Automatic annotation (TrEMBL):
Keywords: Cytoplasm, Methyltransferase, Transferase
PROSITE patterns per the UniProt record, alphabetical: N6_MTASE
Reactions performed catalytically: L-lysyl-[protein] + 3 S-adenosyl-L-methionine = N(6),N(6),N(6)-trimethyl-L-lysyl-[protein] + 3 S-adenosyl-L-homocysteine + 3 H(+)
SUPFAM superfamilies linked: S-adenosyl-L-methionine-dependent methyltransferases
Organism name: Grallaria varia (variegated antpitta)
Protein name as it appears in the record: EFMT1 methyltransferase
UniProt-recorded Gene Ontology molecular function terms: nucleic acid binding; protein-lysine N-methyltransferase activity
Signal sequence interval, chain numbering: none
Location in or out of the cell: Cytoplasm
Chief place of localization: cytoplasm
Any one GO CC term of the record: cytoplasm
GO annotation, biological process: methylation
Record keyword Ubl conjugation present: no
Gene: Eef1akmt1
Length: 214
């Protein structure tokens, strides 16, 4: 009797079964990819640099060094702003769990994946900032102006001076040393930042406080 009942259960053809298995496998792979992307969304290289936007990511070692310097400089419960310095921001996010908060000001809207911490920023409008960024609300500002020009540095400097309570960490070309001192009162450090791809221009770091980069 039971055998007869079993015969009434509809059986899937081997072709349909194979198609179904393939569908489930693809779905699992998609979910797996999504999970790994979420897990790695803060790691350097999760967003590729765009040369047309004058983006050049720091090497992993440099980004790590600058991020750790920012955390120490900001102090316990400190606030850090990364202005056009996304690879430092990404490294700071990897250090999460430490007692600090961070914000990224960036022209490239791909970084909006970072949610509320992302602020769209165009250096041509240096003070066009949202209300939730009041003046002098960051313990340290790390900035890497996208272009090696005095105009770009001068406008970015307006943003930096508006945001910082005092401490500034600037990364730009060695040729900008005079202008950096003029617009931000920063001095060159011994630490030499490196990029994941070598740049033709010599790059340096500048600070206006006693840092661990000397």
């Amino acid at each position: 009797k039971m055998d007869e009942d079993d015969d009434d259960i509809p059986q899937l053809s081997s072709h349909t079964l194979a198609a179904l298995q393939e569908f489930y496998l693809e779905q699992q792979q998609r979910e797996g990819m999504k999970t790994s992307q979420e897990f790695n969304q803060y790691s350097i290289g999760s967003i590729e640099e765009d040369w047309q936007l004058s983006q050049f990511w720091y090497s992993d070692e440099t980004a790590s060094c600058l991020a750790k310097e920012a955390v120490v400089a900001a102090g316990e419960g400190g606030r850090i702003a990364c202005v056009s310095a996304p690879s430092v921001y990404q490294k700071l996010k990897e250090l999460e769990g430490k007692d600090f908060s961070v914000c990224i000001l960036e022209y490239d809207r791909r970084f909006s994946v970072y949610g509320e911490e992302f602020v769209f920023y165009d250096y041509n409008q240096p003070l066009n900032l949202p209300e939730n960024l009041p003046p002098h609300s960051f313990d340290i500002v790390i900035a890497d102006p996208p272009y090696l020009s005095e105009e770009c540095l001068q406008k970015t400097a307006e943003t930096i001076k508006y945001l910082t309570k005092g401490k500034i960490l600037l990364c730009t070309g060695a040729v900008m040393e005079e202008q950096a001192a003029k617009h931000l009162g920063v001095k060159i450090c011994k630490f030499i930042p490196k990029h994941s791809r070598n740049l033709a221009n010599e790059f340096r770091c500048y600070v206006n406080y006693a840092s661990g980069l000397d």
